[in-house]
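FIELD: query
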Amino acid sequence: MNITAIEAIPIAIPYRHNGPATGFGGAVWTTANYLIVRVETDEGLTGYGEAFGYNVIPVTKLFIERNLAPLVIGRDATDIAGLMEDLKKTLHIFGRGGTVQYALSGLDIALWDLAGKRAGVPVWKLAGGHARGEIPVYASLMRLSEPDLVAASCAEALDRGYREIKLHEKTVEAVAAARRTVGDGVELMLDVNCAWSPGAAIEMAQKLAPHRLKWLEEPVWPPEDLDGLVRTRRAAVVPIATGENTPNAWAFKALAACEGIDFLQPSVTKVGGITEFLRVGALAELNGRTLAPHSPYSGPGFLATLHMAAVFAGMGAIERLYIDLEAPVFGAIGLPRPDGTIAIPDGPGLGADPDPEVLRRYRLDL
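FIELD: result
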């Protein structure tokens, strides 16, 4: 089964959440933007993946079209490990992370989707997983800044069945408002997106201690400062989560061995797709770290993360970006139930293809 075409499809879907327009990466989001990767084969099968994303979509799309496509057309889609290793070696002149790895992630996920479809089994079964059935998800709130808005959004998430909530705030006041709202029986996490120096991280972590965080995520800039994470963990005795910006399994080796890190957070659309995620998951298990994947997606990247939850039994609730899309990418598949769980797809491949009408209606002209 050879690859005959690869296409990068950017889409932008309007969304709502409890607050004014906000976003990450230096941009305000009026839409939720995703980059879908479609791979076609000479056997008539089509696979779908997702490449990270967000504000870097135009660059990643261009890289797929100009650099990746010429290297993969005509290649064997069933030799996932061999093809991906060859591509990483060929493309390492561009770097071992960032746009290159995002593009490879989208391709790799699509290849696993194809493999599952060809075999007639779900990806999790191909990867040696078990029939887990469902997994709890946590509400990953957009950054709201105002404590009243944070409290209102937390209350709404509880009403919708979520029992774990992650904030993207940077003040003690906002976290305190969340804890008052959710009470003691709900897990609360905080992601500050590498906001602080180690000294500031230690000070803030100590101030946040009364609010009993399940984890403090990426507290230190730069994210590669493992010594800073260790110092923060020792001084504040708060679990530390990190890894969404770690570009590949080799880079995760140091994180998995680091005593200052409790939760490893590979992102399937950033780290190299399912193939690389499986390696990171093995590292986590061997080093006694808990997998808590970065997955604020609504496309194939989210379905891929669900399949990984069926492979790694120690994975707890997974991240679901707390927004309401005008049109879900897969219809009802991949949406939370009233009890705060999501069914792990059991159909062939990823278990669902993006709605073609959604791809047509919300496609960006880049």
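FIELD: remark
Residues 56 and 177 are 33 Å apart (CA to CA).
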